[in-house]
Design brief:
Layout lengths: L1 E3 L2 H10 L4 E6 L5 H13 L2 E6 L19 H11 L3 E3 L3 H4 L17 H5 L3 H16 L3 E5 L3 H13 L5 E5 L19 H6 L2 H14 L5 H13 L4 E9 L14 E9 L2 E9 L8
Parallel strand pairs: 1-4, 2-3, 2-5, 3-4, 5-6
Antiparallel strand pairs: 7-8, 8-9
The structure holds adenosine monophosphate.
């Protein structure tokens, strides 16, 4: 496994490795969710590049950039065991050198949900993903359905800017109690960790109501809110039933629907989602 820190060395490596090349972008502090992407990339490509980059431009001024968990030695050992060929771990000034001045804005897809709660977040995400696509030039790239809006932003920029990368979405990997795996789960105190499965419980309530025939989005949102209200440590930020493609809020669920939510537990912000009405892997 090659460890690369510079853009120039990455450019050389991408021309030397066998194709097809699969890319797995991450911010490190790897868990089974990340590793599921690496395994899929390994099974489908001759070469696998994993990037570890805590992208400063996708964090707001009052967010957790400085505190974001980092454990490069452990990450590298995990990636070696999964058979990654290249780990690209650039320092911030390699990605954003002095004078950096170009931003990629995916407009409407970035507006609701996470975009509304975290102004500028998707500008940072879209910009860094474009840069990673250009630096690595993958044939395929692997992302988690856990970050459903991010996935839509990336599908949009990939098509709008003609990158022609095959985007693959992988299902959310969960802890045994349902909590979606996330590097940020490390912030939770034991009490908060015990409360955190309420996030997935709210999504399960949505799935149950949908399975019972409910099609009014407001009724499903209210059921999710009721579950969250049962946990005093959980402060909901938004609860959404939206079109999985446009992310517009629905009144009537008459096709696949994305049930998603953001919840604060203490200072930790957790997001999760499920797709109602279809297998999430069959989404466009
Ligand atoms: P991050 O390091 O949080 O930026 O995540 C890197 C990639 O891993 C993104 O495509 C995420 O959607 C994906 N990912 C994060 N958590 C999970 C999870 N629990 N299950 C599946 N994929 C995940």
């Amino acid at each position: 496994m090659r460890l690369i820190h510079s853009v120039a060395e990455m450019a050389l490596a991408r021309s030397e490795v066998e194709r097809p090349l699969g890319l797995v972008p991450t911010m490190g502090a790897l868990h089974e969710g990340h590793l599921s992407l690496v395994r899929r990339a390994r099974s489908e490509n001759a070469s696998v590049v994993v990037t570890i980059f805590v992208n400063p431009t996708q964090f707001g001024p009052s967010e957790d950039l400085a505190a974001y968990p980092r454990d490069p030695d452990r990450d590298l050992a995990l990636l070696e065991a999964e058979g990654a060929d290249v780990v690209f771990m650039p320092p911030p000034k390699e990605v954003y050198p002095a004078g950096y001045d170009t931003w990629v804005s995916v407009e409407r897809t970035s507006e609701p949900l996470e975009g509304a709660s975290r102004p500028g977040h998707f500008l940072g995400v879209a910009t860094v993903v474009c840069k990673l696509f250009n630096m690595v030039r993958p044939d395929r790239a692997y992302f988690g359905q856990k970050d459903a809006q991010q996935l839509q932003v990336i599908r949009r920029l990939n098509s709008d800017l003609n990158f022609d990368v095959k985007i693959n979405a992988m299902p959310t990997v969960r802890e045994p109690d349902g909590l979606a795996m996330s590097s940020r789960n490390a912030y939770l105190s034991p009490d908060q960790r015990r409360a955190a499965p309420v996030v997935y419980a709210a999504l399960q309530a949505a799935q149950e109501l949908y399975a019972d025939g409910a099609r009014q989005a407001s009724a499903v949102r209210e059921a999710m809110q009721r579950v969250l209200a049962s946990e005093p440590l959980a402060q909901p930020e938004y609860v959404s039933i939206a079109d999985p493609g446009t992310l517009a809020e629905l009144e009537l669920i008459d096709g696949p629907a994305l049930a998603s939510l953001a919840v604060r537990i203490g200072t930790t912000r957790l997001i999760d989602n499920v797709v109602l009405g279809t297998d999430e892997r069959s989404l466009p």
